[in-house]
Amino acid sequence: MLPPVSRLDKFQQKYHFISGYTSKVAGTEVGITDPVATFSACYGEAFLPLHPFTYAKMLAEKCEKHGSNVWLVNTGWTGGGYGVGSRMRLSYTRKIIDAIHEGKLNDVEYQKFGVFNLNVPKSVPGVPDNILMPEEAWADKDLFKIQLRKLAEQFQQNFTKYSDETPEEVILKGGPTLQE
To answer: Which CA distances in Å does 20 have to 26, 59, 69, 119, 137?
Structure first.
């Protein structure tokens, strides 16, 4: 559902790090036959003695101090849901990571990815442009919108656990937005 690569702003860095979104997939998880969205704060929730926002602030301070860009890389499905689409090709993920490391995405043109308001490059060397915006790779655009909304709702529901100590601006500016 999410783009294969997005450059995160300072609010999105904190929001997505706190969210720790991933997916349980068949072949890596016992009893899983279809991918299941799951969240683990800071990608290691079981090991966090402090509120996740503490760690998100630390990450943001380091990124700001060193002028680092933060990227959200999705290696999940493209072109449709499980059984229709396919796993993101490893060769594309490698090209994306290489482009990030080589600074090739620093000065390219970006486009906004809907509900999540993510900054997605319009092109990445060696990666087909039509997979960069996930909806373009789905044949069933209506189903894509339904699934995207469902994922955004899962993000919002998950984040209620952390909203007590997370500034509202991080939640409002970093997370998905649903309009009726």
So the answer is: 19, 14, 18, 18, 25
